[in-house]
Amino acid sequence: MHLSIVIPVYNEQVKISKDIRLASEYLLNAKFKGEIIVVDDGSSDATIETLTKLQRTSTLKFKLLQHRANQGKGSAVRTGILASRGDYVIFVDSGNCVPFRYATDGLKLLTSDQCDLAFGSRKLTESVITTPTKLSRRIFSRLFNTFIKTYLHVPSTFTDTQCGFKVFKTDVAKELFSSCQTKGFTFDVEILLKALKQGYRVCEFPIQWRSDADSKVHPFKMSYAVLKELIRTKKLLARLDRAS
């Protein structure tokens, strides 16, 4: 099996070296052939310097892609997935909130042809939350989930669209992301709904998750931008419906 691991980063100079080491250890321990793709989304800290130094001085092997200006998480994930060469591709958030070993559970769903996309979910009964998130983020998450299910008609069977731990068949991922127009936080919703419209099978799997105390996501500060993205997604899906 050849697995591509995509790690989008923005101002992650403290975490990224450990992320790459853990990704490399996972590929080695799982006996997978693979590649690690780090996409820097216009960081303003020393992330790029940290990564280039790591490439020069470390035995860790990874591909570094760079956006000169910050474009948004969706754009960074898109760049990494379109550059991937594996049979399967996973994108993971920086910070190791989900141990890499859970990727194997998602891959099993794909290799057994139970689905084409497998999303890690923090909200399944079997999932384990070791460090809960802040109350404000939990409130925002509930409001967000209610909104996307009523406004965008995300099926109620999906418990967690926003977890940064998703596994794809690479050909499917490239098809979906090549036309992805959501550059920011809510790109996952566009990808999910387009996948369902195109007849792809999407399933969720339980994970272990811990909250990242240093997360760059500030939900209520981002609420206006999130709302604008979801409205654009609604219009995009309506255009696709009219064209089909």
TrEMBL record:
Example GO BP: protein N-linked glycosylation
InterPro entries noted in UniProt: Glyco_trans_2-like, Nucleotide-diphossugar_trans
SUPFAM superfamilies with a match to the protein in the record: Nucleotide-diphospho-sugar transferases
Secretion signal span: none
Domain Glycosyltransferase 2-like span(s) in chain numbering: 4-177
UniProt xrefs under Pfam families: Glycos_transf_2
Name under which the protein is recorded: Glycosyltransferase 2-like domain-containing protein
Species per Swiss-Prot/TrEMBL record: hydrothermal vent metagenome
